Amino acid sequence: MIVISTSSERRRLNKLILPLQQGPDLTLGQFLKTVGECCPQTAYAVKLRLHEMADGELKDMEYFFATLPTPFRAIDSEAYKTSVVGLFMRHMLLAYNKLSFSQVYKLYKALQQYYHSQFAQPGVSPVGIPGLAADNTDMDLTSTEDTMGERMEKDELDTTPLHESDLRNEDAPSRGPLSQKQAEYFLARQAYLLKNDENKALKPAALQDELNNMLKFNPDFAEAHYLSYLNSMRVQDIFISTHSLLHYFDRLILSGSEGKSNGDEGYGRSLRYAALNLAALHCRFGHYQQADLALQEAIRIAQESNDHVCLQHCLSWLYTLEQMKGSDSSVLTEDSVKMAAHFCLPYLASLGIQSLVQQGAVQGKTAHELMDAMKETDILHWKHSLSELIDISLAQTTSIWRMYGKSTMAQQQAQLLLNMSSLEQVNFGVHQNNTEAFAVILCHLAELHAEQGLYGAVSEILKHLKDQFPPHTQHAKLWMLCDLKIQFDRAMNDGKYHLAEPHVTAIAALNKTEGLYRKALVLKALNRTTEAYSILQRLQLYCEKTKYTEMIIRVMLATAELHWESSGFATALPLLLQALSLARQHHLQALASETILHLAFTQLMLGVPDQALGVLHEAMEPVLAHGAVMDKGRALLLAARCQVTIAGAQPDCQRHAALSLAAQTLGEAAAYFSMLDCKERLRDVHYLQARLHHTLGQTAERNKCAMLFRLLDQELPAPGAAVAMRL
Amino acid sequence: FGLSSGLTGIHVQYTLVLILSTKPCEFGDLVQIKKQLISVISLCKERGLVHSVKWASELAFALDPLPKNELPPPAIFTEEDCQDLDAFGLAKSYFDLKEYDRAAYFLRGCRSQKAYFLYMYSRYLSGEKKKDDETVDSLGPLEKGQVRNEALRELRVELSKKHSAGELDGFALYLYGVVLRKLDLLKEAVDVFVEATHALPLHWGAWLELCNLITNIEMLKALSLPDCWIKDFFMAHMYTELQMIKEALQKYQSLIEAGFSKSTYIISQIAVAYHNIRDIDQALALFNELREQDPFRIENMDTFSNLLYVRSMKPELSYLAHNLVEIDKYRVETCCVIGNYYSLRSQHEKAALYFQRALKLNPRCLGAWTLMGHEYMEMKNTSAAIQAYRHAIEVNKRDYRAWYGLGQTYEILKMPFYCLYYYRKAHQLRPNDSRMLVALGESYEKLSQQVEAKKCYWRAYSVGDVERMALLKLAKLHEQLNESDDAAQCYIIYIQDIFSCGEQLEHAEVSTALRYLGQYYFKNKHYDEASLCAQRCCDYNDAREEGKALLRQISQVRDQTETSSTDLFGPLSSNNTPVRRVSPLDLSSFTP
């Protein structure tokens, strides 16, 4: 019918056939635009043809359908009867021929409406009151499945690319009823966005409105209930989410009822998954007892019908639930992994392994075991393209490296995930998903930057996190805690304890253990020793019960510091040694180095500077390589103090060299502290420097340092703790 | 009487105004009421409002006939009426023949209020009729729910213009309200219906529409309604709808006392109210009376059949079904009755078929969906049952039977946790219905949540247990948990309960209770009570042997104690009693 002038146009049109045929319905304007971009002539011809029909009479449409079969016979035609378009046209023709007269008339009316909604022509509008009639003209016609009339025309005349921009426009809320395809597309897209990039999805209220509208026009559209369940989970609405979930499964049972009654595909299956989903829901809301009951029910039904796959899912939920309740579930997890591998469920298997790795890391399994396990699962992931699990695996590796105190490795893994492009097949231009893995990674990055004193970068990362994970979303707590921790540490380092105190309450709200620990730190800093001590004791007992090794070590260190304040250096020593052995056993390098610093300091105070320096050298390397700037400074300061003390006992000739070495070390420490702008410690350093230079007779340097000390001393209040009594 | 705006220059209303201005608010003047009814009947008849005519006529029929000179004068004709007379007559005849478009066409130039109403009303009905036809040959399954009455929007625009100009009379306001309701503009609709009742209190249709829109008692209290005798009918109806049965019955009683004792409408309403509170005997008596007075009545007969079903009165139900089929077999009520009839005869496929037919006749018939769900349950077709119940809930979210049915379905599928949600929903809607509480308790028991289960059973007993199972279950639960005192207490109350209600229940487990109590007293060394229980046990076949054995044991123990030390016996029986000692008198009053 229409002569397509160039072959490039023809190719572009051909490429459009499938997207148009399978994609959601378009409004006429969008349709003409997309066709026009490929081949303006065709678009014009389509418009003309439609105009003829819509402004003509019923017979014009009938004539159109009458001429439809002509190209079927011509073998070289675009619409030959076995071609894609031809098949579609024949399909449509069959549907058309089945229509009764009144239905044909209705179709014609719908076509007119479809046309005029685009090219509104006053006077032709079927209803007299344009204001009211305009509401429902949009999509009326497109809603019919078996008449496909208008879609046919598009195709028959060859069609257009589905640009992403066009699809975007589609999910703007529309008031009229949606057609099946539009609704399905809408649901699929929103569900995908909810899972991967919640910010781009419709706002909860708007989405709910849309869903309600959809359900009003087609109450049998069960998937909408499921999306409503997901949506109300976003706003933590247990009432609606339970309601929607149950409604969805009630509906699903209907649709599945044609199958075998209790077999794999029958409604027995949806019953099992219904119970399982209910368990997941309660789990999400933290109703562990309820979740447990629902899960048991799911397990029982699954056992009765021998559904191993479902059982496997149940098992993985079971260990998750146990983990959430805080009990040890590694045996369950191991079983789960074995069974999942047996039933060829790679997703569940590697999820189980990841969970095992996490537990193993906390329980002090050796690093190579963990890394091996991760490597194995990674192979599995790449083989099955489980992009979600790849993300999780990278995030987990980051966390493990971080736990071991290898900041460089952690940073490298984090960057790897951030720079990896998503593997999702249908990625609607989403570069970075907002899944938990990304939140974890970004938080780690923020903390790593904070350790290096790069607060500008930190605030940028946090801002990004805030944008990506708005406060009401599921993973927002991660960055909130991270943000608070960084602020707290900063305030403590600056000696602004009154600023740190309010953060403690906020931290405690997000993580009780962490909050308690930080509270003890503040109390200690404020010299409320007794209270701090009792808190630390309580915390240690609790952490030993829950096997939270990192915290145990930190608590021990804090307790040792408390002992220092009462000059109980000898009592601190066994505690520190215990902490050291714990840290070594769990490969927690950062904490081990920290402990060694403490140990060295204790030894220094006990009057064995040689020993102290020896011990210190052991920790110096890892601290300088991986440690935070603060730790580096502290280590160097400590080293300098050891050197000075040792030098005191040496003969004069050697002493001079030793002292100048110490002065040099102090200079390095001062550089680190000034990076953090940690004035209190800088003041100490400058004082020591001044004294050293004085002893060495370097007056100019001494004066310079003395001046710096004087400046800082004027600025700061009187020192809280004695300079010498602190690490 | 606030008609200042609506009635200026409307002479058709003149007669009504006359009637209403002398309106007695008391029921004393039945003659006046009768007069009002007669005139409103003729007004409604002219406008084709058949249901209101029927209601008013039924009521008028219940009152004594008027003497000839008391008859109200026919409506006064105005100039406009005269002009429109021929067109109106023609249009009315077309209207009666359901040729609505034709009627509207001939009425389009008329200026009288009466003609205007009929004009708009025909257009409305024409739209509705087309909508129904459309549903039959829609283009595809997706159009379901999308077919609408296309005329509604135009009607709304025209009517709202006239409404704001204050040119609508009572009937037109009613129509405006209906249009608004159909467009889901419920709030506006309520306002307009209230206005309509003020403008024309005697039009029952407006009241009835209002009734459908009021969802709770607060909303009802907030409305300002005209003070007229018809308001009492409305309130009574409203109370029934809101499940405030006691208030409703009071209202209806006062209406009967006021002189409407012969009204079949009131009798049927009272019967329905009794049905709602499960006072089956009263309801049955009233329905029988109703059938005597009005043997060809089909309305409410489905409720009647429900009652017959509950009582398993097969012959009566069969008679009713035959009778109704003879009257009209294509009525929703008839189909429901037949469905119930087959269900009672355990022919569930046929029953489901008839409920389906009822739904075809009226898809929004709530009862049929639920009943069909029950039938599918009987047929063990759980998925179809779930479907039916879900449909019922879609029609009315407050249908507790459907929620309960869903719960039962999942219980049958052995998902006790899953069904909790549904039972809870049902319980929310009927907080004082023991059946939901017992069901909840059973589910909790299956989930080993004994504390919750105990609470549910006890509550079920407290709100008045219909099936008298709650206490027994509670006692057994206590028994399981080794709380013997509590268990004994429950069994005692249970036994009292069973015997006080007089009738013999099939599932009564008095023997179990007696057996337990016998052992309990025996263990606590109350031999007198124990032997009493054991003797009672012997009245039941299943417990006879145990009763005898217990008696033997008791006599043995007694012999021993008497021979060994008579001194010990005294303190034993008086002091070592358990804390909650149960008086033996309780048992002596039992007469099985």
From TrEMBL, chain A:
Residues 140-178 are annotated as: Disordered. GO terms for cellular component: anaphase-promoting complex; spindle. InterPro entries: Apc5, Apc5_dom, Apc5_N, TPR-like_helical_dom_sf. Keywords: Cell cycle, Cell division, Cytoplasm, Cytoskeleton, Mitosis, Nucleus, Phosphoprotein, Repeat, TPR repeat, Ubl conjugation pathway. It comes from the Eukaryota. Residues 9-117 form the Anaphase-promoting complex subunit 5 N-terminal domain. Pfam families: ANAPC5, Apc5_N. Residues 225-324, 563-620 form the Anaphase-promoting complex subunit domain. Residues 161-173 have a biased composition (Basic and acidic residues). GO terms for biological process: anaphase-promoting complex-dependent catabolic process; cell division; positive regulation of mitotic metaphase/anaphase transition; protein K11-linked ubiquitination. Pathway: Protein modification; protein ubiquitination. It is found in: Cytoplasm, Cytoskeleton, Spindle; Nucleus. Component of the anaphase promoting complex/cyclosome (APC/C), a cell cycle-regulated E3 ubiquitin ligase that controls progression through mitosis and the G1 phase of the cell cycle. The APC/C complex acts by mediating ubiquitination and subsequent degradation of target proteins: it mainly mediates the formation of 'Lys-11'-linked polyubiquitin chains and, to a lower extent, the formation of 'Lys-48'- and 'Lys-63'-linked polyubiquitin chains. The APC/C complex catalyzes assembly of branched 'Lys-11'-/'Lys-48'-linked branched ubiquitin chains on target proteins. PANTHER family: ANAPHASE-PROMOTING COMPLEX SUBUNIT 5 (PTHR12830:SF9). Belongs to the APC5 family. This is Anaphase-promoting complex subunit 5. It comes from Esox lucius.
UniProtKB/TrEMBL annotation, chain B:
Keywords: Cell cycle, Cell division, Mitosis, Repeat, TPR repeat, Ubl conjugation pathway. SUPFAM superfamilies: HCP-like, TPR-like. InterPro entries: APC8, TPR-like_helical_dom_sf, TPR_rpt. TPR repeats lie at residues 332-365, 366-399. SMART domains: TPR (SM00028). It holds the Pfam family TPR_8. Pathway: Protein modification; protein ubiquitination. PANTHER family: CELL DIVISION CYCLE 16,23,27, CELL DIVISION CYCLE PROTEIN 23 HOMOLOG. This is Cyclosome subunit 8. It comes from Esox lucius.
